[in-house]
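User: I'll paste a sequence; please echo it back and then give the predicted structure.

Assistant: Echoing your sequence first, then the prediction.
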Amino acid sequence: MCDTMVVVRPGSVLFAKNSDRDPNEAQFLDWQPRASHPAGARVRCTWIEIGQARQTHAVLLSRPFWMWGAEMGANEHGVVIGNEAVFTDQPYEKSGLTGMDLLRLALERAASAGGAVAVITGLLERYGQGGGCGHEHRGFTYHNSFIVADAAGAYVLETAGRLWAAEKVESGARSISNGLTIEPFAREHGDRLRTAVSACRARQALTQRRAAAAAGAGDLMAALADHGRGTGVPHYSVVNGGMAAPCMHAGGLVANSQTTASWVAELRPGSAAHWVTATAAPCTSLYKPVQVTRPLDLTPEPSGTCDPAALWWRHEVLHRMVMRDPEATFPLLRPERDAVQARWLAAPPDPATAFAEADEMLARWTAAVAARPGGRDTRPVWARRYWAKRNARAGLPGRVARRAGAPAVS
């Protein structure tokens, strides 16, 4: 599940996305340079191989560790794209291009938002969309919607199998979640039951309001960290955990998803500013500046099990301790996080410097939360059990697993 927003205004376009995936599905930043390819070259996507373009653009992707495609990204021409899972009445093909594949292919092949829409729809009609999209349940599949933007404007693109509808956003705010919105396409092809379980209508209403009121990138960062209900902490439905809010926290009995990465961009003619968490849970994360054509060494890449050397998992140790009792632990990190974020938004630091400074703060916050006396878990029992299983599967360090209610793992 995901949420994507865009705000089109004179002289600039704001873009933001939360990528919501399985809790142990680590995501990482993947820089790919501009490249030329010989005639007849092929490219292997997540499940199928297709013909390669003669020229591909430099891209920066936020990518689940096991996929070829990406959840969100940008290219050297200032095009950004975020995708959403949607559920429709059209057949789900056993194999094909995933929505994440389509997103990456469009960024690699298009120099404008309109061009990216043409790439996606052309590939969709030729190859279809399909194949497993889940980490825990690899057979889980869905269709996709997209927000595609550049400095001149944006498009909402929604699909159902090989069918599609597009809407140009020339001014104002627009958000999408996990349900079709373009009429009559949505009415004709939406799956009402699966759309309802995703709680996307509540999330889209919230993100639409927040996007419409946004004055800058910081406002969209705050919108992505919204837990809904005005309480400031996650609420867990017995059915779908925290799916009713953009800052999503897993912990339901029927359906689950967790925000695993976040991205905010401000696009202007001739320039683009990108901010990424490169970690889960924007409520506990810092947005760091990045550049599409300036790779950072963030190795090692994460996998589905805990590796303290990987940035995503270092943050996950903090995140999972904080979520046991967020009302008590947020004050241990939020004041410094908010002050640093405001400083960076006012004067963006060098990306490498920002990541290094963020890592130092992450270490301090983790130590402070770990040293906190007590240890109660305020989540409902079903959410505690859900996270105990995920922590054990990930092989989290014994201290963290015990604090999260799971058996100690050495």
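The two ends are 32 Å apart (CA to CA). The mean pLDDT is 95.
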